[in-house]
Write a structure and sequence with these properties.
alpha/beta; Lyase, Ornithine Decarboxylase, Chain A, domain 1; 2 domains; binds pyridoxal-5'-phosphate
Length: 368
């Protein structure tokens, strides 16, 4: 691996392939896999990641918003793309780019049907989302009759899948709750399908669902975090390889005498002679202020260097008193060994938040 010369997010496509193949080994051959590439593929790079997964013959993609799907089409993604949380104002964009909306309430359903009817579409693929306990988005049982009546009199749309989302698939203490969600999903989809003359696909599992609830894979599974190398538990993590390494370098080294301070608001005051390194990465790059003041740490030449003082917009200062290093040396903020999950834990958050926060200012590079 080349040494970093600036802040860079290095993405290892071989690890992505490993994760994809591991997940594929966990589902039946006929079960489809949807790669969730919302939020720049969880902060990595949606275009590169999606094109690579497309080459590996993934079945489907999902994004959160229409704009993300349009970007994928521009990049050359030809596989179907589900838009998980579309807004009516983007419906024309959705149709123009052959994206497939998730419809989750009567209002948005009717708005979409009005547009597909007006545009004289036939069998435009839509996905029906049911709420089974997350209480975020989704139809409930009492909407089914209305949906079926609309579907039976309107051929401009066709239900490609029926799906739901688990609230706590990673938490085995909530197993009863999750099993109830799965049961409720079966009940709702049976009611729905009984009144259709065709059979849409069913899906409910995210990454932790794939691993913890093999009986609930149905026709397709949706994986996000697993592709990027995290399994939501220590037990699962051993099967995955984090695909991204966030690297930076030492811009400058200072020797701080006892009683002097470092950074804004003088948040760090030295109680003895300390050596600090200033790194070109800050909260505008995705390392939030919650990592400052001794909470988070980076790795320099294999040794942990705690972040001291307040995180600045473009820089952090770390304590290197115990580390043999020099200006220009490479710094690992997180990677396969010092993982994003471990760093996230120091600030009481989760890998999802840390990796999706790495801003677009940070250059991406690829190991192929
Ligand atoms: C983000 C998301 C996923 C992916 O979840 P992971 O835990 O990252 O695998 C799946 N389904 C829906 C509806 C989502 O919003």
């Amino acid at each position: 691996m080349p040494k970093a010369q600036e802040t860079i997010l290095e993405i290892d496509l071989k690890s992505l392939k490993h994760n994809f193949e591991f997940l594929r080994s966990k589902v039946q051959k006929e079960t489809k896999i949807m790669g969730v590439v919302k939020a720049f593929a969880y902060g990595s790079d949606a275009d590169e990641i999606s094109l690579f997964l497309q080459k590996l013959n993934i079945d489907y993609f999902a994004v959160a918003y229409a704009k993300e799907g349009v970007a994928l089409r521009k990049a050359g993604v030809t596989k179907p793309i589900l838009v998980l949380h579309p807004q009516a104002t983007n419906f024309q964009l959705i149709i123009d780019n052959c994206l497939e909306p998730s419809l989750y309430n009567i209002k948005i359903f009717n708005e979409f049907v009005a547009l597909t009817s007006k545009a004289k579409q036939v069998n435009y693929p839509i996905h029906i989302k049911f709420n089974t306990g997350l209480n975020r988005l989704g139809f409930s049982e009492h909407d089914i009759e209305y949906l079926i009546s609309k579907l039976s009199t309107n051929s401009s749309i066709k239900v490609k899948s029926i799906f739901s989302h688990l609230a706590a698939s990673e938490d085995l203490d909530e197993k009863d709750f999750t099993l109830n969600q799965i049961k409720s999903f079966k009940h709702l989809s049976n009611l729905f399908i009984a009144k259709l003359d065709y059979k849409p696909m069913l899906h409910i599992c995210n990454t932790s669902g794939i691993l913890n609830y093999p009986e609930a894979h149905f026709d397709m599974v949706r994986t996000g975090i697993g592709l990027y190398g995290f399994g939501n538990s220590k037990k699962e993590n051993i099967h995955f390889k984090p695909i991204s390494t966030l690297k930076t370098i030492i811009s400058q080294i200072h020797t701080i005498e006892k009683g002097k301070s470092v950074g804004y608001n003088r948040a760090f005051k030295s109680e003895s002679l300390v050596k600090t390194a200033t790194l070109p990465i800050g909260h505008a790059d995705g390392i939030g202020r919650q990592y400052g003041n001794g909470k988070g740490f980076v790795m320099i030449n294999g040794q942990p260097a705690p972040i001291i003082g307040n995180v600045c917009m473009d820089m952090i200062m770390v304590n290197i008193s115990q580390i043999d290093c020099k200006e220009g040396d490479e710094v690992i903020v997180f990677g396969p060994k010092h993982t994003a999950e471990q760093l996230a834990e120091t600030a009481n958050t989760i890998s999802y938040e840390l990796i999706t926060s790495i801003s677009q200012r940070v250059k991406r590079s690829y190991l192929k």
